[in-house]
Amino acid sequence: MSSNAEWFDKFAKIPTLVTIQETLKLNPADLEKAEHVEQKELLLWYYDRWLPVVAGTHFWREEIRYFKLLTDKKK
Predict the structure, then answer these.
(1) How many CA atoms lie within 13 A of 37 on its CB side?
(2) What are the contacts of 16-20 at 24+ separation with CB within 8 A?
(3) Which of 4, 5, 31, 75 falls between 20 and 30 A from 48, CA-CA?
């Protein structure tokens, strides 16, 4: 079972808000490049592990997050 600490376990650091923001600004095609492996893993961790915790599974569970944007769930 994966945990929210897996990012820290792998990279021995906690991603900062600035790091997350910069990663979200990257062109999706650039994430496939070898020099962006860490950013791609950060993005996947952020959407699959972190957001379900902070947004709650009511708003960001699997059947929602793979088909909608987080902003689509705004009331």
Answers:
(1) 4
(2) 20/46
(3) 75
Q: Counting Cβ atoms within 10 Å, is residue 5 exposed (0-12), middle (13-18) or buried (19+)?
A: exposed
Domain range for 34 is 6-73
Total domains, the chain: 1
Q: What is the pTM of this model?
A: 0.71
Position 1 in a domain: no
The DSSP 8-state label assigned to residue 5 in this structure reads: T
Domain-embedded: residue 65: yes
